[in-house]
Amino acid sequence: MTTALDTTDDRSPRDTRSGAGQEAGEAARAVPSPVRPVRRAWAGVAALRWAALRLLALAVLLAAWQAVVAAGVWPRVLVPSPGDVWAAFVRASTVHDGVRGISGHLLVEHLAVSLRRIAVGTGYAALVGVPLGLLIGVVKPLAVVLEPAVTFLRTLPPLAYLSLLVIWFGIDESPKIWLLLIAALPPVAAATAAAVRGVPADLVEAGRALGAGPAALLFSIRLPAALPEILTGVRIAVGIAYTSVVAAETINGVPGIGGMIRDAQRYNQTDVVIAGIIAIGLSGIALDALFRGLERAAVPWRGRA
Questions:
Q1: What are the angstrom distances between the C-alpha of 157 and each of 81, 179, 251, 260?
Q2: Using CA atoms, how far apart are residues 214 and 66, in angstroms rounded to an integer?
Q3: CA-CA distance, 245 to 290, in Å (whole number)?
Q4: CA distance 193 to 142
Q5: HEC secondary structure over 177-215
Q6: Secondary structure of residue 100 in the 3-state scheme
Q7: What is the model's pTM?
Q8: What local confidence, expressed as pLDDT, does residue 38 receive?
Q9: Which ranges in the chain belong to alpha helices (H)?
Q10: 3-state class of 102 per DSSP?
Q11: DSSP code of 171?
């Protein structure tokens, strides 16, 4: 009897059922689920449907534009046709009759110079705005002094202080970079301050309970928790800088997309002006998509509980 007792399984029926359930679960996980390919297929179909809808909307817009031009509602010099604007794109992007693009530079060169100015101005704004926002969000006396100044700068249109910057720094690159810096700094500082203030108090108290000092709380808890909103503020600042670059390039802005548009406006080249506006919009969409990708890579935990 002792031998029989030794050879029997000592697990209870509940344990046996539990082990069988675990083995079945592992086996089910090992087999690829048919739901995932179906979901991916439906996601691809939905993406194609949205892309087709966008293309349809674009086609309707172009058709309405062409219809207005064909009806002669406005003179052709004021409202050129889509074909005229496309010809302006080609002319701005190639060498024609010995002339290099528009104003002596190709369209891609104008865009590259403007994007470089935006990158430099926004980079300086981030370097100054993030520490400034951290101070405003953490130190109450500094917030009382600095927050009104940030709000004051945020409400100023760029053209309001462009003339002053030209008086101070001349007509070279310096006033353009300063204008973009001043335009991009307030949203970065405001977003950083709001993000730091919005860090959950329980998270900060847990850090204090673990012995973290003020510096450790700021750089190890507050800053990582606020990083998604800070990156959003930087992305908004890039958009504001892009809208301000045309104003920055109204004075000695060639090469530059704003300078190109300004020169075309002087000679009533409406097709070139519209081509420049479309180039700004398309490059802005691409730039925003790039920043969204960087946000997803830098803060993959965003939007997750």
A1: 33, 10, 16, 22
A2: 63
A3: 19
A4: 11
A5: HHHHHHHHHHHHHHHHHHHHHCCCHHHHHHHHHCCCCHH
A6: strand
A7: 0.76
A8: 65
A9: 2-7, 13-30, 35-71, 82-93, 107-138, 140-155, 158-169, 173-197, 201-209, 214-216, 223-248, 257-266, 270-298
A10: strand
A11: S
The first and second tokens of residue 140, run together, are: 């109450």
One-letter amino acid at 121 equals G
Kindly state the tokens that stand for 27.
Answer: 């086996």
Q: How far apart are CA 276 and CA 281, in angstroms?
A: 9
pLDDT of residue 16: 46
pLDDT of residue 54 exceeding 90: no
Q: What is the pLDDT of residues 119-161, one digit of tens each?
A: 999 999 999 999 999 889 888 888 898 889 988 988 888 888 8
SS3 (DSSP) at 252: coil
Q: CA–CA separation, 67 vs 244, rounded Å?
A: 33
pLDDT in tens, 185-194: 999 999 999 8
Checking if the pLDDT of 2 tops 70, the result is no
- Burial (CB < 10 A; 0-12, 13-18, 19+), residue 287, is middle
Q: What is the mean pLDDT of the chain?
A: 82
Angstrom distance (rounded) from CA 96 to CA 98: 5
94 token code pair: 């190639």
Query: pLDDT tens-digit profile of 185-237?
Result: 999 999 999 888 887 777 777 877 777 777 777 777 778 888 888 888 898 99
> At 105, is the secondary structure helix, strand, or coil?
strand
